[in-house]
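Question (not urgent): is this output format expected?
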Amino acid sequence: MSRELRHLKPAGEAIFKDRHTTKAKELLKTWKPGERSTFALVGVPLSKPSISHSGASFAPGTIRAALQNYTTYSGESGYELMDPILDLGDIYMDPTDVIGNQERIGEGLSDVFSTEAAENWMILGGDHSISYSSIKAFAAGKRVGVIQFDAHHDLRNTEDGGPTNGTPFRRLLEDGIINGENLVQIGIRDFTNAAAYADYAKEQGLGIYTMGDVDNLGITEILRKEIQRLAGGVDLIYVSVDMDVLDQAFAPGCPAIGPGGMDSKTLLEGITLAAKHEKVKAMDIVEIDPTIDFRNMTSRVAAYVMLQVMKAKKGCK
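Got this back:
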């Protein structure tokens, strides 16, 4: 004899539901061919090429989950985010084939971008090695500028260790995918890079802003200047957010934590300003290891970055 089960709800649903509140995670919608929205995301769960121990392959899932911590309503602007975030899923990663995985990322994201499912793309890493394949796919047939928030140059040579998370921008420059003058690095930290790579950055004509520059000039002045300059010479702009640009107090879940970095408010201010420009159409968020994070603090910042981008793209103050 069957009977109705009482007091049960589907596993995984929110513990508490307020009829007047919509959680940001509810904006996620599994993409179906032909669907289009203002925003879409794809996960790239690769961390095997990381120089240091990293569980960044788990980050796409934890960042999605962290959206549950926020509502869709911006009290500052009086605006409700309503556009669905089309979720195209995660690029498949082979357990052992690192080089093959990086090629797969490029092929997979080429397919993703060709769907034209969204006006604005959010790529969730993974370690910073994914940015090579992601930017290469995004730049196909276009002149692309890159704004990189990072403590590190990521211009290491590939002879010592191959295509690691320390090499993506060296590879992009050497392969002619981007030009040096179209790469801007913001937040480069003291005692974090080698002189040879600082020299290489200068030789290639990169725009380099250290944390000292951020403190002295301000993130707003830097970005207004550089976005205006980039926009005059490129078709589109890609923003790469390495979460270790943040001070260790704000991003304990980064494999390469350290003092002297940005606070989260400065990063959010910069992201919001950048996202307001019409040529900024793609962003990746990388270098979060949920296995060493504290109360998902770092993934929560990443999710908040996504919401700030969405708010800026809708023209909210």
